[in-house]
Write a structure and sequence with these properties.
This protein is an alpha+beta fold and 204 residues long. It contains seven helices and six strands; from the N terminus they run H-H-E-H-H-E-E-H-H-H-E-E-E.
Length: 204
């Protein structure tokens, strides 16, 4: 029996992920809100909200895989809209750091609400479907980071506190997080965790 013609399952998956990425980006454009945010401006607001410490612009460039001029323009716009403010970095008075204003935090709270089309798509998955996708996405991110193809993401699978399959007899919660000292399952994997600390790379 001949194989099904067309793209392989892996290539079909990549096509599907591309389509999902397009949907997320289009939704971001349609969710500009009263501040008329671009998707990059929205990403910066959410990045600053994810860790309230003052963040340098270079950190934003690295985290969002953008360029200094592009981020600089977006930051200038956010400051002009009253959503972010610049201050001297407490760790280095020569450097400038960014934080959200109260209005910026309110905008971050608005952006954190999943728009209806994406919520409907997520709700179409049951718990097992969500867990499987989280496991797959986390694995792919880890490999892409190893190849330096994407910025470092604060995922469980790259964290020094993560112990995969530490509880093999517990099918629902096989992994263990040493930071909170608790078992958890694939459905609780974090793609972006504020408590993440990078694991030491294994010796080759």
């Amino acid at each position: 029996m001949s194989a099904v013609p067309g793209l392989s399952p892996s290539e079909q998956l990549l096509t599907g992920l591309t389509r999902l990425g397009q949907a997320v980006r289009l939704t971001a454009w349609h969710n500009a809100g009263p501040a008329n945010l671009t998707p990059l401006q929205a990403d910066i607001v959410l990045f600053l909200a994810g860790d309230r410490r003052p963040r340098r612009q270079t950190e934003i460039v690295t985290a969002l895989a953008s360029t200094p001029p592009t981020v600089s323009d977006a930051v200038r716009a956010l400051v002009g809209k009253g959503l972010a403010e610049r201050s001297r970095d407490p760790a280095d008075s020569r450097a400038v750091a960014l934080t959200l204003t109260d209005a910026g935090q309110a905008e971050a709270d608005r952006l954190a609400v999943v728009p209806a089309p994406l919520r409907a798509a997520l709700d179409a998955l049951d718990g097992e479907g969500v867990a499987a996708m989280l496991r797959g996405v986390a694995t792919m991110i880890e490999v892409l980071q190893r190849h330096q193809a994407i910025p470092v993401s604060r995922t469980c699978v790259t964290c020094r506190f993560y112990r995969p399959n530490a509880h093999p007899d517990d099918l629902d919660r096989p992994h263990h997080c040493m930071f909170v000292d608790a078992a958890f399952g694939d459905g609780e994997l974090r793609i972006d965790c504020p408590d993440h600390q990078a694991a030491t790379p294994a010796a080759g």
